[in-house]
Amino acid sequence: MRKKAISQSLIGRFADIVGEVNALTRAEDQIGFLREWRDRYTGATPVVLRPGSTDEVARILTLAHAESVAIVPQGGNTGLVGGQIPSDDSTEIVLSLGRLKTVRNVDTAGGTMIVEAGVTLAEAQTTAKSVGRIFPLSLASEGSAQIGGALATNAGGTAVLAYGNARSLTLGLEAVLADGRVWHGLRRLKKDNTGYDLRDLLIGSEGTLGVITAACLKLFPMPAERETAIVAFETPEAAMKLFRRAEAEAGQSLTAFEFWAHRAQEFALKYMPNVRDPFTDDYPWYVLIELSHGGKGTRIANTIEPLLTSAHGQGLIRDAAIARSLRQAEDFWRLRDAFSEAQKGAGGSIKHDISVPVARIPEFLQRAEKVVERVCPGARPVPFGHFGDGNLHYNVTQPESMDRAQYLALWDQMSDAIFELVTELGGSISAEHGIGLMKRDVLKRYKSEVELDMMRAIKKALDPKGILNPGKVL
User: Fold this and answer.
1) From the DSSP assignment, how many helices (H) and strands (E) are in the chain?
2) Reported pTM
């Protein structure tokens, strides 16, 4: 679309829809909506609109479509690829969904709940817990990340191994299309074969095809028991062997298998408050393993201890710390969740959210170290991630003696080298964060022309004027 300046009179018409108090035009009120939390992306907007209902979202998009005004949907502003940030030329309006906070319905018998887009993941989890269920989508940013944004990016998190990503946890959607029409798709059905799956089309589309305003989410039985341990390894190959053994012995009770290098733990202990080292010695690699059981019959107590004792006796693991209380388990997860933010304290970080086939994780880690050293000698890899689904956050921190700006200038060179390796191993350049602005141009090199043409055709059909999150993804 051709960008154009937005007049004061048009801003006034938008403000009339949401009320003056929810149309933010002052710089000091807008700042939290215009800056990505890592400070990699910043933008500008003539107004931040904060609608309080689906009807208001529909009226905003009806007017935006008629006037060819660009709209950037935004949830909790926790995205990591710039998809939620407007351009810096003040031609795009930010549409914040944070006021859509209603839990419309909880169906305990059916195992579902309908929540609006502005409900945070933590609030959704609390709602589920209040009726003896769980909503398992869990991220380090779950206190701020909102359901709408999580679905728009098809977020993953730490429970994908057992429950799947955001798409797998969603039965139906309500969404507003680019022209203001509302799609009422809040179905509770697990099977619905009536044509194209519009739900899955909108999930992961990063606000470029429609604005998600509510979702019907799956709920699961509350685990009767949960066992958590952190295990130390000498090599990723050893972690792979334990993963396969845990799969075989624990089956569906294996709900988490989180993996990280010593440097990730070192940074967390150094730069983050309220985290503890579970060991007295340092080890090269670690895994957080969790076993859960949701029924009242079979018990899993002591399943993890014989598993780890046997693995230790065979020299597969170096050490293990088993949580003996809920508080210890929470401490273990607090350590795991600290890795992303902790890297800020160590300097500039070039981040990669990638996936490779699980069996090739050790090979990737070994070869990626050589790639990093070739691009920037002395740079410090900080890999961590969700071992069981092949998703690694292969972040690389600057050399200690290097200037931050000088290092970050190598971002494209470093990422290109990592992406080439990922592609060679049959992986993906984006596992759970999406494409946004960061990987938009890179996507052209890793998607076929047929795939890109299909994506462009869908975009043109649903957003013919190109007003929804322009310049993102495509």
Assistant:
1) 17, 19
2) 0.92
418 closest CA partner among 348, 351, 349: 351
The model's pLDDT over 368-398, given as tens digits with 9 standing for 90+, comes to 999 999 999 999 999 999 988 999 999 999 9
Both structure tokens of 53: 């209902």
Sheet (strand 103-107) strand order: 103-107, 112-116, 211-218, 170-176, 182-185
- Residue 294: partners with Cβ closer than 8 Å, 6 or more residues away: 220, 221, 222, 223, 224
Rg of the chain on CA atoms, in Å? 23
CA 322 remoteness from chain centre = 28
Please, are residues 439 and 419 in contact by the beta-carbon 8 Å criterion? no
Return d(Cα 85, Cα 88) in angstroms, integer.
Answer: 9
DSSP code of 42? B
Q: Cα separations (Å) of 231 from 239, 253, 384, 440?
A: 9, 18, 14, 38
Per-residue model confidence as pLDDT tens digits over 175-199: 999 999 999 999 998 888 889 999 9
Give start and end residues of each alpha helix (H) in 281-379: 304-313, 326-337, 339-342, 361-375
The answer to whether 463 touches 208, Cβ cutoff 8 Å, is yes
Residue 252 CB neighbours (<10 A) = 11
